[in-house]
């Protein structure tokens, strides 16, 4: 390659790398896989090696990607937060082993750790107290995301263990685990919100939110993997890591100390097969030299340490042709584009569809009809489209454009400011929206109307027998028997279960109304603050958003809902039918008066019968004036323990002589039975 050509290529690669860095770190919407990114970076590094005159300190080959944002306060890192070199083959890992041994001698030991796929974080503690949490930023200076990190239950605010250094830094990864992510997404769909497509991006987007009350509702988890301090005199990274759980930090228990590179290979092979069974996503294994003096001897470049490397697993990828795009209309009128693909096998399943998320994503990916798309199964539930093969683009193919009108009812679509999606505003007349609302209302978590499934709802709406949820209560057996596949007995049973739903608790009715942003949890919170529907209907959004856990967006959704004349009429008709519209005499318990837990710190662990964990947190903090923390420390007053409590919390509490309250004892002590 000649110099001119090399310069042009290097300039191109730098631009591409900066662009993809921005998508990954700032927009949380990567377009290419890590492997493709590393290939670009490697090519640039090779060109810079051959033509040293092309090197410059601001080349992305010399810097870690930056996630610094203008909105957070920034702080310098005491020790730079470096990135890691990636390898994808045994050969390259063998090379690393040879380089390390050449410098540090043959008796090096390695620590293998899982490479969690999340966002890196640095936590700073001083005198046992949490001081701040910083993102990696550009490696030198990070964003202060303390308020958000403090919402994570497993991040301790204070540490009471003996012998902890006066100040120290712990580093790790913030992730969303698979199961809590699934539950959160289910809830989002029920609330009429867009589900998140990817766990890493959801974690990184959440960490950068400006409203930590919203962050507190999202299931972030923080796994720490390294301890930086200068007081213990400990030389082994592995031993330092082992101190972390003793101090109350969460670590991944699967790290191993290996005496040679063969043991490292075994670890890598084992986790490549087992990774699906982990509660979180990993994208590889990090191999670190264990001895800190060896680490110091090996040193670092400006970007990466020479004593550690990431062995990355390749995400399984395949390509398939885009046959068509379906624009699906949901209960709230949100329109979601779904790619229909030529069926193709990926990670053991046949993929036919993939989400295109929203109009912004389509534009960002520049997708045309008939394109051959790369699809990947990473942390996603639905396979992700990572790009398109431009060399296979059909000449003259049209870019995908969002329809102007609703594909179901032809109403012009609207786009709310700050919301990525398009909406059909015809919520009274658009069939999938009517069906979706009825389905939601009848669902198990709302009015639990047995026998009212999708098919029956479809028929009721198509025949004009039901237009809204209140109409359900006017249905009689003789009308219902007219439906296909509806016998006399089933019609009778359905009328019975519709009647039965009249006595469902008020918070379930509120949830069933399908107000945008109001899921089960929010409905309970709203019901506690507005114990009957009339006061709620009068509430202004400022009053609603002053309630902890209710954001301004949800507050205005609630206010708007109750200003709509059709909704008001539905509620009046529901009242006439005798549906439960107030909280009175509902439930078995009522909170004790006043802040009886003021000044008390409580740790909640396990599963409960009467209320869920979040509700207990809210009760303790909002009704009883106490404080809930995630870890057991000297300042814990008591533990509220349900079924299968965390064993380490219980052990610690027992050792420290901290009182343990069962759910029943808690309710007896702080709640009065009203029955
Ligand atoms: S060590 C100097 N260990 O991977 C050492 N990183 O690609 C730098 N990561 O920024 C990090 N799990 O966000 C290390 N067990 C682990 C890790 C890990 C995930 C992330 C971390 C880092 C990135 C580098």
Word description of this protein:
It is a single chain. This protein is of the alpha+beta class. It has six domains: 3-54, Helix hairpin bin (Helix Hairpins, Orthogonal Bundle), CATH 1.10.287; 74-312, DNA ligase/mRNA capping enzyme (D-amino Acid Aminotransferase, Chain A, domain 1, 2-Layer Sandwich); 317-392, OB fold (Dihydrolipoamide Acetyltransferase, E2P), CATH 2.40.50.140; 431-503, DNA polymerase, domain 1; 506-587, Orthogonal Bundle (DNA polymerase, domain 1), CATH 1.10.150; 593-674, Rossmann fold, CATH 3.40.50.10190. Helices cover 36% and strands 20% of the residues. The strands form six sheets. Strands 12, 13, 14, 15, 16, 17 and 18 form a seven-stranded antiparallel β-sheet that branches. α22 links the parallel β20 (601-605) and β21 (627-629). α1 (3-25) packs antiparallel against α2 (34-50). The longest helix is centred in the first third of the chain and has 23 residues, at 3-25. The model is unreliable at 585-589 (pLDDT under 50). The structure holds 2-(butylsulfanyl)adenosine (IVH). 2-(butylsulfanyl)adenosine binds next to β3 and β11. The site of 2-(butylsulfanyl)adenosine (IVH) has 14 residues, from β3 and β11.
Mean pLDDT value: 88
> Structurally, how many domains make up the residues?
6
Q: Which regions are unreliable across 5 or more consecutive residues at pLDDT < 50?
A: 585-589
Identify the CATH homologous superfamily of the largest domain: DNA ligase/mRNA capping enzyme
Q: What's the helical proportion of residues?
A: 25-40%
Number of β-strand runs: 24
Tell me the major beta sheet. Answer: 7 strands, antiparallel
How much is the radius of gyration in Å? Answer: 28 Å
The appropriate CATH architecture of the largest domain is 2-Layer Sandwich
The CATH class of the largest domain is identified as Alpha Beta
CATH structural fold name of the largest domain: D-amino Acid Aminotransferase, Chain A, domain 1
Bound molecules: 2-(butylsulfanyl)adenosine
Strand content: 15-25%
For the record, give the distance between the C-alpha atoms at the N and C termini, rounded to a whole number: 85 Å
How many H/I helices?
24
Q: Which outline best applies?
A: globular
Counting copies of identical and different chains, the oligomeric state is single chain
């Amino acid at each position: 390659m000649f110099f001119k050509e090399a310069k042009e290529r290097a300039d191109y690669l730098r631009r591409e790398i900066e662009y993809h860095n921005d998508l990954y770190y700032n927009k949380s919407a990567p377009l290419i896989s890590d492997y493709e990114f590393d290939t670009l970076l490697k090519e640039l590094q090779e060109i810079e090696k051959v033509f040293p005159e092309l090197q410059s300190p601001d080349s992305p080959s010399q810097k870690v990607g930056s996630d610094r944002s203008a909105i957070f306060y920034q702080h310098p890192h005491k020790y730079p937060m470096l990135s890691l070199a990636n390898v994808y083959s045994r050969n390259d890992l063998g090379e690393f082993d040879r380089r390390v041994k050449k410098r540090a001698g043959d008796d090096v030991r390695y620590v293998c750790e899982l490479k969690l796929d999340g966002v890196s974080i640095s936590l700073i503690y001083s005198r046992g107290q949490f001081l701040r949490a910083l993102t990696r930023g550009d490696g030198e200076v990070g964003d202060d995301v303390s308020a958000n990190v403090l919402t994570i239950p497993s991040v301790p605010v204070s540490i009471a263990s003996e012998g902890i250094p006066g100040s120290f830094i712990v580093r790790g990864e913030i992730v969303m685990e698979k199961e809590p992510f699934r539950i959160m997404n289910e809830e989002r769909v029920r609330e009429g919100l867009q589900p998140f497509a990817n766990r890493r991006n959801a974690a990184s987007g959440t960490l950068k939110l400006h409203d930590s009350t919203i962050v507190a509702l999202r299931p972030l988890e923080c796994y720490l993997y390294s301890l930086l301090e200068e007081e213990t005199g400990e030389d082994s990274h592995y031993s330092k890591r082992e101190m972390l759980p003793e101090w109350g930090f969460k670590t991944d228990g699967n790290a191993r100390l290996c005496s040679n590179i063969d043991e490292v290979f075994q670890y890598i092979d084992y986790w490549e097969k087992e990774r699906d069974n982990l509660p979180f996503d990993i994208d590889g294994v990090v191999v670190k030299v264990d001895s800190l003096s060896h680490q110091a001897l090996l040193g670092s470049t400006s970007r990466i340490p020479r004593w550690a490397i990431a062995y990355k697993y390749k995400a399984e990828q395949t390509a398939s042709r885009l046959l068509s795009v379906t624009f699906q209309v949901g209960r709230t009128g949100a329109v979601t584009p779904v790619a229909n693909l030529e069926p193709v096998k990926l990670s053991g399943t046949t993929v036919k569809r993939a989400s295109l998320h929203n109009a912004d994503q389509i534009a960002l990916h520049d997708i045309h009809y008939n394109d051959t798309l790369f699809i990947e199964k990473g942390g996603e539930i639905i396979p992700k489209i990572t790009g398109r093969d431009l060399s296979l683009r059909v000449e003259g193919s049209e870019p995908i454009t969002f329809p102007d009108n609703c594909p179901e009812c032809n109403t012009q679509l609207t786009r709310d400011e700050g919301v990525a999606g398009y909406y059909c505003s015809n919520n009274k007349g658009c069939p999938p929206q009517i069906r979706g609302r009825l389905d939601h209302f009848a669902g198990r978590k709302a009015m639990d109307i047995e026998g009212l499934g999708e098919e029956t709802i479809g028929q009721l709406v198509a025949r004009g027998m039901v237009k809204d949820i209140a109409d359900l209560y006017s249905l009689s057996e003789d009308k219902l028997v007219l439906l296909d596949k509806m016998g006399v007995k089933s019609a009778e049973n359905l009328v019975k279960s519709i009647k039965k739903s009249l006595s469902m608790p008020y918070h379930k009715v509120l949830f069933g109304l399908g107000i945008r942003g109001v899921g089960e949890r929010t409905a309970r919170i709203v019901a506690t603050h507005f114990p009957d529907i009339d006061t709620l209907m009068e509430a202004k959004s400022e009053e609603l958003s002053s309630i902890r856990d209710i954001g301004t967006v949800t507050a205005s959704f609630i206010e708007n809902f109750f200003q709509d004349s059709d909704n008001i009429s539905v509620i009046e008709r529901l009242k006439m039918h005798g549906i439960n519209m107030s909280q009175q005499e509902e439930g078995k318990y009522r909170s004790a008066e006043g802040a009886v837990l003021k000044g008390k710190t409580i740790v909640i662990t396990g599963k409960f019968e009467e209320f869920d964990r979040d509700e207990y947190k809210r009760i303790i903090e909002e009704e009883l004036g106490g404080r809930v923390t995630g870890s057991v420390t000297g300042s814990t007053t008591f533990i509220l323990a349900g079924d299968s409590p965390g064993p380490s919390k219980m052990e610690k509490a027992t050792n420290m002589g901290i009182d343990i309250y069962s759910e029943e004892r808690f309710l007896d002590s702080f709640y009065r039975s009203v029955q």
